Amino acid sequence: MFYPAKEAPIIISVGGSLIVPNGGIDNKFLSRLNFFIRGEVKRGRCFFLVTGGGRIARHYRDAGKAVIGNVTDEDLDWIAIHATRLNAHLLRTIFEDIAHPRIVENYDKKLKNWKEPVVIGAGWKPGWSTDYDAVKLAIDYRGKVIINLSNIDWVYDKDPNKYKDAKPIKKMVWEQMEKLVKPNTGKWIPGLSAPFDPIASQLAKKHQLTVIITNGQDFKNLERIIDGDCFKGTIIMPCNIDAGFYDHEYYRGRKGEYRVSFVESFFGRIFHNLINFYRAFLIKIFINPKNCLDVGCGIGQLVRWLRFFGIDSFGIEISKDALELADKKTKPFLKQGDITDIPYKDNQFDLVFTYDVMEHLERSKIKKAAGETIRVSRKYIFHKIYTQENFWITLTHGKDFSHLSVFTKRYWQSLFGSFENISILRSSYFRLPLFFETIFLLKKK
């Protein structure tokens, strides 16, 4: 299948409350959306825009009830579905010159070899909302993040229209979202007003997707989300990654990405020790820094081998459990620290590097983390990152719920290229084919 811009599309669910807020079309919002999407397309992005029904759907639903007194759930759904399709045709008209001619209304029929940077989607069939349709698109077209544009800034712990003490939730996991919509018992109700519909939530959880719910009127904030910068909104993730996640069980292989039986075996331990020896050897041969910092050093095995090769090496790690498991001789050179706030001075190391760390970060922390690795380096920055092109991972690893930000190589190139004080070196480090790994060597200007 062909993907425009060589990158997975950005899935945006455009709430009907933004297009038709009170029964009348919001031309100002549509004009701003038009300007924003076209600007991002020029930057090489491509989009799936899935439209909701909005107030117009409720007006038609209420009219049916008023006339005949009782309308079946299926008919109520079909009314809403046709309202989403009307809104979709409006967006299709606005983006006519850059949008695929077909509006996606049947999600079983996948697009093939499309070249347009914008695709419009609408409601499908009774039983779920356009939230579910957006999840289907993410699954079918490799999307990892769905941006749900609504008329609210956050998801709240209870209805803010009814309760003055309602508190915004900045970060949550799918289990929390399920509890939030628990009164609906996981069922779809026509016209349901919920942050994310329960059926869509179940599917998104199953496929480990991330959903960001934010106010669609704030286009500066939307740009920050797409660029991987800090943003306002609620992020719903497969799991909550913090210092508490990375405990003894993780570093002994009982949870996380590596297959347990292999990691805990004698040969598994030898294999991972050889990997760190190999990495240290390559750093010594190709870069040979006087000193370096391993960000996300785990139990410090790579730091130990780098010091073996005569490099003044240090490491930081967010998990206390990992540091406790470190070798006694290596512990003095390790400290607890967060990649978004590295506890070292500017320009302190010849080389700052990460191995399989960046893909574990929440999207809102990625740019800050990259900036921190650049800040404390005076010469080189090296990142090995698991990307969508590294297909070998499915052969040797199990499902890793901590992989929150698995993007394409192009995404990371664009991110690192946004820093004016660094350049991306393309042929200064030995690397395996993209099928196996994605490596970036950056140099400070």
Summarize the SSE layout with pairings.
Layout: E1 10-14, H1 16-19, H2 27-42, E2 47-51, H3 55-68, H4 73-94, E3 118-121, H5 130-140, E4 145-150, E5 155-156, E6 168-169, E7 171-173, H6 174-180, H7 198-206, E8 210-215, H8 219-227, E9 234-237, H9 248-251, H10 260-263, H11 266-286, E10 291-295, H12 301-308, E11 312-317, H13 320-325, E12 334-336, E13 349-355, H14 363-375, E14 377-385, H15 393-396, H16 409-417, E15 422-425, E16 438-444
Parallel strand pairs: 1-2, 1-4, 2-3, 4-8, 7-9, 10-11, 10-13, 11-12, 13-14
Antiparallel strand pairs: 5-6, 8-9, 14-16, 15-16
Q: At the first level of CATH, what is the class of the largest domain?
A: Alpha Beta
CATH architecture of the largest domain: 3-Layer(aba) Sandwich
**In which range does the helix fraction lie?**
25-40%
Q: State the shape.
A: elongated
Domain tally = 2
Radius of gyration from the alpha-carbon trace, in angstroms: 24 Å
How many helices? 16
Pathway: Pyrimidine metabolism; CTP biosynthesis via de novo pathway; UDP from UMP (UMPK route): step 1/1
Protein name: UMP kinase
Family: Belongs to the UMP kinase family.
GO molecular function: ATP binding; S-adenosylmethionine-dependent methyltransferase activity; UMP kinase activity
